[in-house]
Amino acid sequence: MKKSSNEKIDINRITPDADYGLTDKQVEKYKKNGWSNETVKPPVRTAKEIVAENIFTYFNLIFLILTLLLCLVNSFRNLTFLPIIIANIFIGIIQELRAKKVVDKLTMLNVPQAMVVRNGEVKQVNAEDLVLDDIVIFKTGNQILADSEIVSGEVLVNESLLTGESDEIPKKPGDKLMSGSFIIAGKCRARLTAVGRDSYISKLTLEAKKMKNVERSEMIQDLDILVKFVGVALVPIGIVLFIQGIFINHESLHDNITSMVAAVLGMIPEGLYLLTSVALAVSSMRLAKKKVLLHDMKSIETLARVDVLCVDKTGTITENKMKVEKIKAIDIENRDTFEELLAKFVYAMDESNNTMKAIRNYCKQTSKVIASEIIPFTSKNKYSGAVFENDAYILGAPEFVLREDFPLYQDDINEDTKKGYRVLVFGKALDGFMDKKVTGKVIPIGYVLITNPIRKEAPATFNYFKEQGVEVKVISGDNPQTVSEISKKAKIENADLYIDATKLETKEELAEAVKNYNIFGRVTPTQKREIIRILKEQGRTVAMTGDGVNDVLALKDADCSIAMASGSDAAVYSSQVVLLESNFSCMPDVVLEGRRVVNNIQRSASLFLVKNIFSFFLSMLAVILSFTYPLKPAQVSLIGMFTIGIPAFFLALQPNKEKIEGRFLSNILLRAFPVGITDVIVVEMMVLLASMFEIKYADYSTASTILLSIVGLIVLYKTCKPFNVLRVTVYVGCILGLIGSCVFLPWLFGITLPSKECIVLLILIAITINTLLSFTTKIVNLVRNGFIKIRNKIKNILNN
Predict the structure, then answer these.
(1) Burial class of residue 349, CB neighbours in 10 A (0-12, 13-18, 19+)
(2) 424, 510, 534, 524: which is closest to 475 by C-alpha?
(3) Distances (CA, A) of 434 to 33, 244, 345, 374
(4) Nearest-5° angle of CA 535, CA 537, CA 540?
(5) Sign of the alpha-carbon torsion through 137, 138, 140, 143
(6) Which residues on adjacent β-strands are paired with residue 137?
(7) Nearest residue to 377 via CA among 139, 136, 115
(8) Which of helix, strand or coil describes residue 570?
(9) 303-355, pLDDT tens digit by residue?
(10) In a 3-state reduction of DSSP, which class is residue 649?
């Protein structure tokens, strides 16, 4: 029987041969004893947790208490909110479980895999099928899946995802590899020394699970603030209303509890969290169907706010494959010698490099000569090298290979870069290599001209971003002129304005370039990261797409990181969004989905907040002025159902392309506050006039319900704009639903036919609603603008 990770038992360790690895029998023994690489999963909710989190909430407890109080006084008619709450719970559970099922299936397509040596054969297995002491092959772009020790080969490793440091660390036989780090260059075989929960990355994940303050989106944080405030405020207000009703207003227990329940009910944003969770769940399903995997829900909101998109050339603008168009010997008579030396060089190098694969396909020679020393390509050096007996050869970017001699060959090279070719120089390093670096003179032998096919969908995609006001910046390690030519073909705006990042020596120069240029060439991984940081310091919301190990640092620092699944393991595992089909054309859909969700949740949240603001302030007035809360629970449910709940859920799933501006909380408060205050004014006018004309509670309670419904429908009308078939249907349906409930179910919602005096007052107050709404909106905007001016003055004083 297989042991769980908590049931591991000691076994005799094996030190397998690097070329043979473990046998199947040894692997089974390790698995049987619990030594497999069952990694600790990041915090993802189980089905049981989803059900529990939807049922056992603070507000559901409040609803339960309110239900018991109404049952206590036999006010069963006012339990109309109960079916809505139960329906909300079931809708939330069903939608989130559906989303989980879809995303789980998609996640299975993106399971980490590794090349392992077993029984003398190399085969690919899922990361979780690895066992202790397995011999695993790691090469450029791979992420280390479990702690290990190198037994053969040499690699350069980046541990920035673990330590924050971006140094390239050389590792040779006997050195340790930490899980979570990734290979920048080279190839090695390593024996796994710690797997599953014992690995370094799993221990970090366990620590992350213990942390209470997990990073959450601005929208969720703001909703938490609202909910906590309401949750704290409604209990004391409810208690005070109850005490006042009994001891000051001398109400009966029945009337007192029903009015108190109505006040508390109005303050609870019962559908707001449900709306948000359902909208996010539906979004994750929509994106999953487009083969887009979200590693966290926060990325949906971030995508909605993106105003600058940074992309790498290879794998994003172009396809993730290369083709050698031709080779050019500097001395034409030596072309055959050049091709022979080039073939000898590339067949000695590691095949994991796409450039080497393309050159191998072109040379079509299979003879392999063993090099005495290999210098793997890195994004920092931008060249690779090999030593054969006494001769050292180098292949890479012209500026980095030729260095001070580059101007001598620049005109020839520029002719090809202007045509969009990526030009590599192949040469002989006269003094060889010192510490993996070329130091002496390089005699160029010839050029290798490489092309990357532009993705067919790239021009249309970049045109979309231009229309949406999203600035595109291309950040590449290739020659800036080549990047510019390819960017022009992809229809990227201002593609003719390019700069060579090797000339940007200070952060100030880089910051100035970020303001003025959209095309960057010869960018190092560290500079990519710095560009992202500068953009964020400038107040931009940055998305970064990439697929290589040189993109990882920038991906890690971007507000939203997007990786192509066909790219390196390191890029895929460090990104928040993964395009599983590496289809860049789905990027507009991804951004649109984010905008749709946040815009619609903002609109719908403002509808919910109106009721909360109104009920809170009216309850405070009821306490101060000692009058009975003028609504019944059933009436609050009626208004909430047709002016908030039903339309909010339909509107939350509608298309919405508007760019997101401002903070979530301030946006919904600005929309909701004037309406909430208008509600308070019209209802308070009704209460005061009813008191003057001695109108019965039942009459002015019905009149208040009608007034609030009118305000709600006016706001809903503005929220539904621009109208389409669905929105017209929802709006008309809500009007008919309200009228139908009042006409056919008056007993259920406490609706009575008001007296003539009450009807006259109702009409007079209703006439003022539009004027009051305009007035309160202007006042709120004046206060907001005044606050902004004061805040800016304080900032200027502090800065000076």
Answers:
(1) buried
(2) 524
(3) 47, 87, 19, 12
(4) 50
(5) positive
(6) 115, 189
(7) 139
(8) helix
(9) 888 889 999 887 788 887 788 999 999 887 777 788 889 988 988 887 666 78
(10) helix
Kindly write down the DSSP assignment for every residue of 178-213, as one continuous string.
-BTBEEEEEEEEEEEEE-GGGSHHHHHHHHHHH-S-
Sign of CA dihedral 90, 643, 654, 558: negative
Nearest to 384 by CA among 373, 392, 395: 395
What is the three-class DSSP state of 660? coil
φ/ψ (deg, to 5) at 450: -115, 140
Place of tokens 């160029």: 444
Q: Which two tokens stand for residue 346?
A: 């590339």
| Cβ-defined contacts of 501-505 (< 8 Å, 24+) | 501/527, 502/399
pLDDT at residue 213 in the model: 42
Say what percent of the chain tops pLDDT 90: 40
Instruction: Report the distance separating Cα 399 and Cα 410, nearest Å.
Output: 9
| 169: enclosing H helix or E strand | strand 168-171
d(Cα 7, Cα 608) in Å, to the nearest integer?
Answer: 50
In one-letter notation, the amino acid at residue 61 is L
Is 626 within 8 Å of 259 (Cβ atoms)? no
CB burial of residue 138 (10 Å; 0-12, 13-18, 19+): buried
Distance CA 552, CA 576 (A): 12
* Spatial CA neighbour of 633 closest among 170, 76, 47, 209: 76
The whole-angstrom separation of Cα 322 and Cα 174 is 35
CA atoms of 201 and 161, how far apart (whole Å): 10
135 Cβ partners below 8 Å, 6+ apart? 16, 17, 18, 20, 21, 22, 116, 117, 118, 151, 189, 190, 191
Which is nearest to 606 in space by CA: 488, 478, 714, 715? Answer: 715
CA dihedral 547, 553, 555, 557 (to 10 degrees): 180
Could you give the CA distance from residue 22 to residue 31 in angstroms, rounded to a whole number?
12
Catalytically annotated residues:
312
Q: What is the 3-state secondary structure (H, E, C) of 501-538?
A: HHHCCCHHHHHHHHHHCCEEECCCHHHHHHHHHHHHHC
pLDDT over 70 (residue 770): yes
Residue 729: count of CB within 10 angstroms of its CB: 12
**Residue type at position 543:** A
The token pair that represents 282 in the structure block: 């539906």
Q: Regarding beta strands 498-500 and 391-396, do their DSSP bridges make them parallel or antiparallel, or are they unpaired?
A: unpaired
- Whole-model pTM: value is 0.76
Least reliable range by pLDDT among 133-147, 192-206, 251-265, 625-639: 192-206
> Looking at this protein, which amino acid is placed at residue 479?
N
Per DSSP, the residues of 263-319 read: HHHHH--TTHHHHHHHHHHHHHHHHHHTTEEES-THHHHHHHH--EEEE-IIIIIB-
Q: What is the average per-residue pLDDT within 638-652? A: 87
Q: 213 φ, ψ to 5°?
A: -95, 75
Q: Which residues, 6+ apart, have CB-to-CB distance to 432 below 8 Å?
A: 387, 392, 440
Q: How far is CA 136 from CA 351, 390, 590, in A?
A: 17, 33, 36
Residues 210, 64: Cα–Cα separation, whole Å: 31
DSSP 642: I
**Other Cβ atoms within 10 Å of 40 Cβ, number:** 17
In whole angstroms, what is the distance from residue 311 CA to residue 546 CA? 6
Polymer length in residues for the chain: 800
Q: How far is the first Cα of the chain from the last one, in angstroms, to the nearest whole number?
A: 71
- DSSP assigned state of 405: G
pLDDT, mean over the chain: 86
Contacts of residue 771, defined as CB under 8 A and 6 or more positions apart, other chains included, come to none
